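Notes continue from the previous slide.

Worked example: a multi-chain complex. Inputs as given:
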Amino acid sequence: MLKYALLGFLNYQPMTGYELENFINASTGYFWHAKLSQIYTTLKQLEQGGYLSSKVEIQEGRPDRRVYTITETGREDLHHWLAQPLLEADPVKSTLLLKLFFARPIGKQAILTQLRLQLDLHTRQGEEYQQMPSEGQRIAHENPQLTVDALLWEATLRFGQMYEVMYVAWLEETITRIERDFPDES
Amino acid sequence: MLKYALLGFLNYQPMTGYELENFINASTGYFWHAKLSQIYTTLKQLEQGGYLSSKVEIQEGRPDRRVYTITETGREDLHHWLAQPLLEADPVKSTLLLKLFFARPIGKQAILTQLRLQLDLHTRQGEEYQQMPSEGQRIAHENPQLTVDALLWEATLRFGQMYEVMYVAWLEETITRIERDFPDES
DNA sequence: ATCTTATATATAAATCTTTATATATGTAAA
DNA sequence: TTTACATATATAAAGATTTATATATAAGAT
């Protein structure tokens, strides 16, 4: 799937692998992320498959940049993927819930400590999303042809905000219930 | 991580790979899932690593069952993992959001169709979680020593319920905004 | 009668993702 | 002055996950 994240960004403008990582982890970070190593290897695969072309820009004093550009094939493949409806709900995979499910043996206080740590993490995460000075709005203001795109970018950010609000509410509720109903160590 | 899902379940009682799949996809399905092929290969690895032992039960008329039992090493490793606090928020990975982010080229109606399909899927999913006759409660009633575990199982189910409520609210809001603000094809 | 689902295990191949390593320089902060 | 961070690319190895394939029988539904 990283394939389509890369094609999607390169459909806006040519970029290097390094720049792609910044874009991905800044703008789609709350629902899609990738390591540089995966980005570089995927770019290479996409170029071999004819979805991208690249050229090297010589630089002085630092490594040369390899700038990737989407090809017509790449654009068609991206559009085909976008038009294909997702027929299932995205699966959730949560290490925290897995741990909580089996956590009884470690006892009440250890469980509460871990949940409070998560409460802190998700509270911060939520605040970050709230404050995020709508970067999309700014970009759209400079490039008016991206106004409609910005509407969609905002919708994804809104998901991040609602997700964190829900997560914090669940953590608070769960902590309260465990404090009340989980028997004390004795 | 599947490792710990398997150790966690086998810590309750010995089971076969086939039974483990049923347990995993029935009770942790909304936050952890796995294919049979992965379960079988992981069980083999865990036995080689000394975390599990197994013995074959001969059956008539159908394939023999290989029943896995957790070892002391396995139990220690499980407890060590459980006690280790998760220092990060679980990352989200959503194909739907990735698609929505780049969806502008497919146009208003195609986007709305896809979002409405997801609204249907998540509405059903949410209803399923709501109706789910607390299986954990029943098991705990039969095995009173599992009462405390059932409290934790319920907390994870509650997450699933709240997640789907949030998801449906986000989809409704997003559909409304796109209907209102996304320019019509012309 | 035929099809589907459930029971049961296992491997091969492919794909996806993370972690570690190597190289090289500029700038800003402590 | 040393440390951290940003710029920039790339590969090896390991780990995680999915898809496809093979085999075999029983029970229940259409």
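Summary box: The mean pLDDT of chain A is 94. The CA atoms of residues 139 and 146 of chain A lie 8 Å apart.
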